C-alpha cells in the first residue's frame, strides 16, 4: 500500500443474521498533492441501539478534514463515535417518532448530537501535544495547537432515516433515482448568514489569497478546535434529516479535496456507472473485503478523478450502498 493512502471496504458484521444487515461501504483516502495527511475517516456499524431509535441499530460514519495539523482530526476519529453513543444512549424514549424532520423526536436527536460536538470541541481546544491523544491538557510549550482544527461530517444511518450533522466544508450527497441531493451546506465565511453571525460576535471576514477567511486566516466558518478563533468559529453543526427511500442508491461523503474539483452531479453519475473491475486502478490499493468491492471501486474512481483534475488537497471519499 502506498504511503499516505488508506483503503477500506466493509460489509455486515453479522452476515448470517438478516436483522443485523448494515450497509456495505468502501472508503479511500490519499494525501494527494498536499504536504501531509490530515484527513481521517471513521465507520462504526451497529454503533448503538438507543431507546430513541426503538432499540434498533444506528450506524455511524464520520469524516474529518484537519487543518494546521492532524491532531484534531485524529482526536475526532478516536472519540466522536464514543461520545455520540454515550449521548444517544442517555436520551429517553418519546412517544413521537421521526416524522419528516420536525417535532420532538428531531429535537431530541439534535440535542444529543449538538452535545456531542460541544464535548468534542472542548476536548480539541484542550489538546496537548506533549503526549498521546489521551492527554487533553493545554500546554504552553505547544502554542501552535491553538491553530489546529478539523471539519466534522457525521452521518447516522437508521432503518428509516439518514441523519447528517455537518461542521465545516466536508460534504455529504445522496444519489437517489438518478438525481443528486446535497445533504449538507458548506460553512464558508462569505456565506451571508455565516458572515452576519461572525460579525455579530465582533469578528471580521477578510479576503486573503483569493478566499474569504475568518480574521483573514481560516477559510471555513465552523470547525472543531481552532481555539484562537473562538467564538467566531463555532463547532455547532447544521442538520439534515432525510427519510430513506427505496430509490436511494448510495451516500457519498467527501473532503474538500474531492468537492473543490468534482461537482455533485458528476460524482453520482460516476458511481452509478462505475465498473466493478475498476477497483482503484493505478492507486496501488486492493479492497480488504470482496463483499463491498463495488463500493471500494466507486470510491477509488472518485479519488482518481479528483487527482486527475489536479486537486491540491488530501482527498477522502466514503461511499455507502443504500440499496435495501
From TrEMBL:
Coiled coil: none annotated. Residues 24-322 form the PPM-type phosphatase domain. GO terms for molecular function: metal ion binding; protein serine/threonine phosphatase activity. Residues 1-24 are annotated as: Disordered. Keywords: Hydrolase, Magnesium, Manganese, Metal-binding, Protein phosphatase. Its EC number is 3.1.3.16. The keyword tRNA processing does not apply. It comes from Mikania micrantha. This is protein-serine/threonine phosphatase. It holds the Pfam family PP2C. InterPro entries: PP2C, PP2C_BS, PPM-type-like_dom_sf, PPM-type_phosphatase-like_dom. Its cofactor is Mn(2+); Mg(2+). The lineage of its organism: Eukaryota, Viridiplantae, Streptophyta, Embryophyta, Tracheophyta. The keyword Cell membrane does not apply. SUPFAM superfamilies: PP2C-like. Belongs to the PP2C family.
Amino acid at each position: 500500500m502506498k504511503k499516505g493512502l488508506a483503503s477500506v471496504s466493509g460489509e455486515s458484521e453479522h452476515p448470517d443474521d438478516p436483522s443485523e444487515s448494515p450497509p456495505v461501504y468502501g472508503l479511500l483516502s490519499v494525501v494527494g498533492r498536499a504536504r501531509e495527511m490530515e484527513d481521517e475517516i471513521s465507520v462504526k456499524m451497529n454503533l448503538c441501539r438507543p431507546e430513541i431509535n426503538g432499540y434498533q441499530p444506528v450506524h455511524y460514519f464520520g469524516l474529518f478534514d484537519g487543518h494546521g495539523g492532524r491532531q484534531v482530526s485524529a482526536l475526532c476519529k478516536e472519540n466522536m463515535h464514543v461520545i455520540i453513543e454515550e449521548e444517544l444512549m442517555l436520551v429517553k424514549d418519546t412517544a413521537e417518532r421521526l416524522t419528516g424532520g420536525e417535532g420532538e423526536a428531531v429535537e431530541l436527536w439534535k440535542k444529543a448530537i449538538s452535545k456531542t460536538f460541544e464535548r468534542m470541541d472542548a476536548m480539541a481546544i484542550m489538546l496537548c501535544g506533549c503526549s498521546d491523544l489521551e492527554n487533553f491538557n493545554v500546554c504552553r510549550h505547544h502554542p501552535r495547537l491553538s491553530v489546529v482544527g478539523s471539519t466534522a461530517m457525521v452521518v447516522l444511518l437508521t432503518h428509516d432515516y439518514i441523519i447528517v450533522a455537518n461542521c465545516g466544508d466536508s460534504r455529504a450527497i445522496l444519489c437517489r433515482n438518478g438525481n443528486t441531493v446535497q445533504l449538507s451546506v458548506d460553512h464558508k465565511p462569505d456565506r451571508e448568514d455565516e458572515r452576519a453571525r461572525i460579525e455579530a460576535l465582533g469578528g471580521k471576514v477578510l479576503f486573503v489569497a483569493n478566499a474569504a477567511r475568518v480574521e483573514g486566516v481560516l477559510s471555513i466558518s465552523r470547525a472543531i478546535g481552532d481555539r484562537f478563533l473562538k467564538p467566531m468559529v463555532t463547532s455547532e453543526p447544521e442538520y439534515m434529516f432525510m427519510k430513506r427511500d427505496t430509490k436511494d442508491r448510495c451516500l457519498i461523503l467527501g473532503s474538500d479535496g474531492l468537492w473543490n474539483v468534482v461537482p455533485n452531479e458528476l460524482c453520482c453519475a460516476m458511481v452509478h456507472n462505475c465498473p466493478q473491475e475498476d477497483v482503484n486502478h493505478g492507486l496501488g490499493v486492493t479492497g480488504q473485503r470482496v463483499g463491498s468491492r463495488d463500493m471500494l471501486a466507486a470510491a477509488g474512481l472518485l479519488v482518481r478523478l479528483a487527482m486527475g483534475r489536479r486537486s491540491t488537497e488530501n482527498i477522502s471519499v466514503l461511499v455507502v450502498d443504500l440499496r435495501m
